[in-house]
Amino acid sequence: MQIPKQAVLLRIFIGEDDRYQYQPLHEAIVLKAREMHLAGATVLRGAVGFGASSRLHTSKILRLSEDLPLIIEIVDSEEIVNGFLPVLNDMMSNASGLVTMEKMQVLQYGRAAADPA
To answer: What Gene3D superfamilies is this protein classified in (predicted)?
Structure first.
């Protein structure tokens, strides 16, 4: 699979406790992205954060409810990511989150080409 040098980065901010059809939302998003043949997705777990509610989410041991922040990053062509957005919108209908998209340049995807020399 190849992705164009000029691509977009879709970044999705959600909480660890968010769900979609009885499974963790972050897992559902990654699996759907894979099913739809997007170039790749990564889930990053934050140690502390807050969102629209201003409620602090932290990994401190004395907290009863962690609900740590998660960031899902997906990179692909703008056309393919735009095709994924309606699906993502449906999946996030019961979650409070933030979705951003920015243009970016892909320097390498997969293994580097072998040196012909």
So the answer is: 3.30.70.120
User: Residue with structure tokens 């660890």?
Assistant: 16
Structure-block tokens of residue 104:
């970016």
Delineate the domains of the chain, giving CATH numbers in brackets: 6-105 (3.30.70.120)
Which stretches of the chain are DSSP H helices? Answer: 25-35, 78-91
Amino acid in position 38: L
Q: What is the pTM of this model?
A: 0.83
List, for residues 17-32, the tens digit of each pLDDT value: 899 999 999 999 999 9
CA–CA separation, 106 and 103 (whole Å) = 10
Interatomic CA distance for residues 25 and 28, integer angstroms: 5
